[in-house]
Amino acid sequence: MSMREFRLSPLWRALWLAALVLALWLASSVSGWAAQPPPAQTATPTATPAPALGPDRFPAGVNPLTGLTVEDASLLSLPPALVSVSNFPVSARPQSGLSFAAYVFEMYIGEGMTRFLALYYGEFPQAADDAPQATPTISDAAVGPIRSGRLPYQKLRSLYNGFLVMASASGEVRTQLSNAANVFGSDASDINSALIEVPQLEALAQTNAGSRSRNLTGNLFSLTAPAGGQEAKSLWVFYAYLNQVLWEYDPSYQAYLRSQDKSDGSGMFYPSTDRLTGEQLAFENVIVLFVRHEPLNSSKTLIDLDLLFNQGKAYLFRDGMMYPIYWSTASGEYEKKTGQFRPIRFVDRQGNPIALKPGRTWVEIVDVSATLQEVKPSSWKVRFYAP
Question: N or C: which end of the chain has fewer CB within 10 A?
Answer without folding.
Answer: N
